[in-house]
Amino acid sequence: MNVASELTKEPALSFARVMSSAPLIIFVVLLIYLAIAAPNLLEPSTISLILKQSVPTVIVCLGLATVVVAGGDDVVSGGIDLSIPATAVLCAGVIADQLTNHGSSLFFALALAIAAALAMGIVNALLVVFIGMTPLLATLASSVAAVGITKVITSSRRINIDHPFIIYIRDGDIGGVPSAVLVAAVFVLIFCIAVHRTRWGMQLQAVGGSREAAEVSGIKASRLVAQSFMLAAIAGALASVFVLARGSGSTPGSEENLLLEMVLATFLGAAFSPRRIVTVWGAVLGAVLVSVLSVGFKSIGVDVFWTGCIKGSLILIVVASAAYTGKAQS
Amino acid sequence: MEIRQLSVFKRRFAQWSLVCGLSAAVLLSGTAQAADLSLKGKKIGVAVVGTQHFWDREAFNGALDMVKELGGEPVPVDGGRDNQVHADNHDILLSNKVDAVISILGDGAVEPKFEALKGAGIPVFTVDHLSPHGVNNTTSDNYYMGTTIGRYMADAIGGKGKVAVFNAFEGALRICGIRTGLWKYVMQDYPGIEIIQPELAEEFANAPEDARKKTLDLLNQYPEGTLDAIHVGCWDQPAIGIVQALEEAGRTDVKVTALDGGPDTLEIMAEEGSPFVANVAQQPRLIGQTAAMNAARHFAGESLLPQTFVDVRPVNGPEEAKAVYEELGYGTL
């Protein structure tokens, strides 16, 4: 009986190995193809453009990766926060409205945006930790609410912004490196250290690995999960500055593309980890690669709808791979 | 007497010959000039905000086809009806080192991109987006569109009544500022017309369905006899959803007016008893083609005016909708 089960287990594991590497293999093939078809992709100016365009996605990915680390990799019952892009767009709306329509100071506008983001984080934490809703549904609902609030604040209209700080984030550079990329790199470093190098981060990973085991060893799992949602909301607030800079203002509907890229990048990032788990640095790398794909496909003239179709298929492969790997491991 | 008549005839014949000859010469020189235009060896980026809607698609295809016809190599990029993606696409054209960019629509997010292109020595030819960084903007006569639709709408409701307006883009896009601003200017002369406040704002990406829902809410708020017209300030995709909502609610007494006049909305206007009563039809394909020709003129050393206006066709009622539909080559209704 044991021998039989071992025999059936072996092929399943090797198939799981192939499945877990599938996203990586597909991406490598796509990247090689793009590098050949669009030679300018590897030029310094294009690399700078790719990094610059990836910044909003990188920042929201920091939040999502933190929530997934705390809640576990299971894409249905594990940790996920779909509301981060909506939080980013909500905060962008708040900042744009305050700066342009009310003449508020930058400090006040940013403080109000952070307050709005924290409110979103508290709502998500309450829904998931205290009410016990599935994070997928809870954050989907809060995302819809955030989009609604944004429409109320902005009257569903675009708000232009010309504040020097936002313009500096958009156009400034230090030693030839775009300022947005440098600021984002600092945030990446902070999140990486917090989640992967501190005691708090280790506890977060322990909760995500096995909540029961973590609780038995005295870790307050609920508190950590709640904190992960708060951090994700703050990531949304940070991303809002880059969203505003990228668009020179707030535009209704910007959250849709950001959501697609965030999910793709974060779960793609798991493919780079030896244990195939979501990590902060993996998500960041994933976000940059998604940006490479976007710029690369456009450079070779692929129709935008095909790009959407390809990205959608990649999300499916990446998420299916994560789900199957999780199933095989369990 | 006969001799005198003959000499008058000869003189008139000579005059007509001269007029005809001159006209032919002007026409021929015009044709020769158009034939001389060339984009040979030029890589022309063509950026459009989206291709889901007839107008955008037609302007885009018109520009692409004309670039090819003039011997250029088009580099197309499509924003997928997302203004942010559309703006970012200009960065990709910049890194692709195109010789010129034709940019169709877009909001304020494209301005810094135009500035960067201009800074890199790449001329930008805009469509429906007046920019200080562009060489030339090809557009419809938005001034005429705004005032004409104002007059038509006022006439349709007898010069008085309550009007709701979908007006999401008056502050974001200059062309919409002109169209809606001049519509409001005309409304000033009709003190009996009240514009319902707050104004409605339609979504950019999913306009028909969004406008349908908002119209159903509006109809609940304004029961029968308290709402006379719904106007869409800058385009007519929301009008598709508005008409749908009016039909669902049995409120086709409320008149609908809008701007753009593509085949989809002209078909709705041509239906019997349609509440969609007035429009101003544009020629998006010709607009796109003209923008590409303007790029070629620029490379030929011609000095271009800041704006090139392309003719529009006012559409008042179902019969005119049918006539314009045929005239613009969409077929027969």
Main beta sheet strand tally, sense and closure of chain A: 2 strands, antiparallel
Flag low-confidence runs of chain B: 1-6, 16-32
The total number of structural domains of chain B is: 2
Going across the biggest sheet of chain B, name each strand in turn.
Answer: 2-1-3-4-5-11
Query: Outline of chain B, from the CA principal axes?
Result: elongated
What would you call the shape of chain A? Answer: globular
Q: What is the CATH C level class of the largest domain in chain B, in words?
A: Alpha Beta
**H/E element string of chain A?**
HHHHHEHEEHHHHEHHH
Overall mean pLDDT of chain A: 88
Number of alpha- plus pi-helical segments of chain B: 11
Rg of chain A (CA only):
20 Å
Number of strands of chain A: 4
What is the arithmetic mean of pLDDT of chain B? 89
Low-confidence stretches of chain A: 1-9
Structural class of chain B: alpha/beta
Largest interface, with Cβ-Cβ < 8 Å?
Answer: A-B, 33 and 35 residues
Could you tell me the number of beta strands of chain B? 12
Name the CATH superfamily assignment of the largest domain in chain B. Answer: Response regulator
Share of helix of chain A, binned:
over 70%
| Major beta sheet summary of chain B | 6 strands, parallel
Strand portion of chain B = 15-25%
